[in-house]
Amino acid sequence: QSKLRNRTAVCGVVGLGYVGLPLAVEYAEAGLKVIGFDVATGKVDRLNAGESYIQDVSSEVVRHHVSEGHLSATTDLSRLAEVDTVNICVPTPLRKTKDPDMSYVVSATERIAECLHPGMLIILESTTYPGTTNELLLPIG
């Protein structure tokens, strides 16, 4: 908590799509260091080059935060060990049965659990049903 107040926390965002990238930029705007995680090498490469692929986030803003060292992206999920907070922003597409496909959330949670350390704050941002954190995520960690 004090790391967030004094802006020394390192924030992680897993999933750099239309929810994750704007969130990562907001953390950087607040003066926090952000590591974005995504499985798509193309997204990671574009972000590290200072280029946005999301309409609501300008490349100019991304370029500024990357050049200042406040924002970086990686496909290396072992770097989750470096973060103090992590927001899970992965997709939950609907199946044919109209229930959310939780496989991306489960996969992200399993990788986070491997790097879990005392004081780490984990926030589920992905769209899902009430009770997901208690029923699905807590048993993994």
- Strand content range: 15-25%
Q: Find the count of extended strands (DSSP E, 2+ residues).
A: 5
Largest sheet: 5 strands, parallel
Indicate the structural class: alpha/beta
Order of helices and strands: HEHEHHEEHEH
Question: Low-confidence runs (pLDDT<50, min 5 residues)?
Answer: none
- Please work out how many helical segments DSSP would assign: 6
Alpha-carbon distance between the termini?
21 Å
Compute the CA-based radius of gyration. Answer: 15 Å
Read across the widest sheet, the strand sequence of neighbours is: 3-2-1-4-5
Tell the overall outline: globular
Mean pLDDT equals 94
Helix content: 25-40%
Structural features:
alpha/beta, 35% helix, globular
Characterize the structure shown.
The structure is a single chain. The chain is α/β, with parallel strands linked by helices and 141 residues long. It has helices spanning 2-5, 20-29, 41-48, 59-67, 103-114, 132-137; strands at 10-14, 33-37, 71-74, 85-88, 121-124. It has a five-stranded parallel β-sheet, with helices on both faces. It starts with a helix and ends with a helix.
Report a brief summary of the structure.
The protein has 141 residues and is α/β, with parallel strands linked by helices. It is 35% helix and 16% strand.
